[in-house]
Design goal:
The protein is built from twelve helices and eight strands. By secondary structure, it is α/β, with parallel strands linked by helices. The protein is globular and about 45 Å long. The structure holds 2-phosphoglycolic acid.
Length: 251
Amino acid sequence: MAGTVIAANWKMNKTTGQAIEFARGLKDALLKNPVAATVVIAPPFTGIGALATEFKDSNIFLAAQNMYPASQGAFTGEISGEMIVDAGCRYCIVGHSERRRLFGEDNAFINAKITAALHYGLMPIFCIGETLAERNSGATFMVLAEQLKEGLNKIPTNDIKKTVIAYEPVWAIGTGLTATPGQVQEAHLFIRNLLSEMYREKEAAGIPIIYGGSVTAANIGSLMAEQEINGALVGSASLELASFLAIVNFH
Ligand code: PGA
């Protein structure tokens, strides 16, 4: 059975001071009321160092929002997996639809990032999801299968156990349109079955498949009630502490 992961994707938000204020509040709240879920915060790169200090000796983990697959070299503006680990991250978001759409990332490039992340001991939070046009034309499962197979190309069984899959339908991200629990459950079941075919069933059963797309305190409960939904990747509703706390305390 996969564990529960609730991750905050802050995207390009929060100065270091704002990040620290949030982190202190979160740490205090979770010390007083521990939650069963693994809680992950993905700040912008500039906030990682300060939050690593804040979260030292806590069970809140850090994720980077992106990485470059090469280990070092002449890649102006990029950050390697090794640097991300060194800064204090346990996870790295890979293949977010904003990166695919705005920065032209394709499945092969995302596969290179996942390979590099695992090489450095980072757990990838690998995002996949269809656009509205793809859903409306009945191509959802085809798109998910292609993104999953190409993104995980040559990733061995031992490494898949360290991966989190985030199903994020593009039409539900930042739009206020949440996929229904039934739509998410259906997609997650498809992903789980495909992972069972690609890997062994036992390993596939242990991979957290989390949902992202307009998750809020109001809809997290009904999403988490579905068997195959193992958590959430939360954007807008993770920026405010009270709202994110309500999400991690979804029970
Ligand atoms: P949202 O973003 O919660 O604002 O829709 C989710 C994401 O992009 O990961």
